[in-house]
Design a protein that fits this description.
four-stranded antiparallel β-sheet, alpha+beta, 12 helices, Rossmann fold, Alpha-Beta Plaits, 26% helix, seven-stranded mixed β-sheet, single chain
Length: 431
């Protein structure tokens, strides 16, 4: 942690450069980043690297580097983190009022595998209690490269004591997917938000919760239904389970359409019958994951790149169930990026317009090249300013020609199944 205090009588602006000596120039390799590739840009909140001393890329220790958290008032302004350079650095531009103190946090964790390093780095996108337990409330408020105005205060509060709702008790019944326990189906969303912000899921637990949510959603499927199959890691679990029950003969005559070529490639070998959307719409049910879910059942989706097809398919469904683990619950949409799908012709002008709107646009890349969607478009990832509601920001974005669609899903979901450590909790619109 680095503290900076302005002891002068006038505002000052300066740059802070953080560097990390990794040990060997030619052997430094980028493993991955928060945007899903091995190219590190200012849009990334973390990256992992390793030292290939022996030529053995499977056993060398990995290092997870955390630069800043989503929604931070002071993100990285410049970064140099590339293969073959043992002195990566990242830059913050900081302005201090007279007498003001600000702090920058940076984290690095050494792990034995890529997965472990990625998980440790990603976990610190949102600070967990054990990362801040030695800090006072004043010190927490001085941190500027993590979102402290809401997130850290909630974490600090829930770290001290569990939340207890002041609402009257509701009728209770056995919660779907929760063995030997009883949970209210419509639990307080204040509980969900505060709990999700105070929990860091390890990869094994997160994977287990995704499967639990997918299994609960499968209970809504009946023989003869038409289904929309989503895209992403949680939707993938649902597709796998669907293939298993079809193979056993527990379900029959299921007709499906997919939100991406990726899901099509998964579904076909499982024996799932696929059709064009127009052939089977309106759909009886769509099941998909989400990147962020708020208390109004509004979503951010599309960080997997399939936002346009997802919205088309899910708007054709009579019922759309969102499946997710508890880490996807947020107090305010925009903790991470909002994907905006744009035409290639409009990319440059839209980048300029988005930048002028304070949205910090970054072109989505894959393997160092622009990510091309299934519909032949590009994706610009933007940031929702902290003082703005996402609906207002999206309304302004949609006014611009060349914008095809955004990852904001305000009304599409009819319910959400959220897997937690205590079982699967259900949220329905208007509950």
């Amino acid at each position: 942690m680095n503290y900076f205090t302005n002891t002068t009588g006038a505002p000052i602006t300066f740059t802070m450069i953080t560097s990390n000596n990794l040990g060997s120039d030619s052997n430094t390799r980028i493993v991955s980043s928060s945007s899903g590739d091995n190219v590190v840009t200012t849009a990334d909140t973390w990256a992992t690297s390793f030292q290939n001393f022996s030529g053995n890329t499977s056993s060398d220790p990995r290092i997870g580097h955390v630069f800043w958290g989503p929604g931070a008032p002071t993100p990285v302004s410049n970064i140099n983190f590339v293969d073959g350079d043992d002195n990566p650095f990242w830059v913050y531009s900081i302005t201090l009022a007279p007498g003001q103190t600000k702090a920058i946090l940076n984290f690095a964790t050494g792990q034995g595998t890529k997965a472990a390093a990625n998980a440790q780095a990603a976990a610190l996108d949102l600070l967990s209690p054990n990362a801040t337990q030695c800090l006072s409330a004043t010190e927490l408020g001085q941190i500027v490269n993590f979102a402290t105005s809401t997130d850290l205060s909630i974490i600090q509060r829930t770290a001290r004591r569990p939340f207890r709702s002041s609402r009257p008790a509701r009728s209770r019944r056995s919660a779907p997917g929760c063995s030997d326990c009883s949970q209210p189906l419509s639990a307080s969303w204040r509980w969900r938000v505060e709990r999700s912000l105070s929990i860091t899921l390890d990869p094994v637990k997160a994977e287990r919760q995704k499967i639990e949510a997918a299994r609960e959603a499968l209970r809504s499927v009946r023989s003869g239904m038409s289904l929309g199959l989503g895209t992403g890691s949680t939707a993938k679990e649902f597709v796998t389970l669907l293939g298993e029950v079809l193979a056993r003969g527990d379900l029959r005559d299921i007709r499906c359409t997919c939100t991406s070529k990726q899901t099509e490639d998964q579904a076909r070998p499982l024996g799932i019958s696929l059709f064009a959307l127009a052939e089977i719409s309106p759909l009886d049910l769509a099941v998909d994951g989400a990147d962020e879910i708020d208390a109004q059942l509004r979503l951010i989706k599309g960080r997997g790149g399939a936002l346009l097809r997802e919205k088309i398919v899910e708007q054709q469904a009579k019922r759309f169930i969102v499946i997710a683990d508890e880490s996807k619950i947020v107090e305010r949409l925009g903790v991470g990026v909002l994907p905006v799908e744009v035409t290639p012709f409009a990319r440059d002008v839209l980048e300029k317009r988005f930048a002028a709107m304070g949205l910090t646009p970054v072109l989505r890349l894959r393997d160092g090249q622009p990510r091309i969607t299934d519909e032949g478009h590009l994706i610009l990832d933007v940031r929702v300013p902290g003082q703005s509601d996402i609906a207002d920001v999206v309304a302004d974005i949609r006014k611009l020609a060349g914008v095809v669609e955004t990852g904001f899903f305000p009304v599409e979901a009819t319910e959400a199944l959220i897997a937690t450590g205590e079982g699967v909790r259900r949220m329905t619109r208007g509950a």
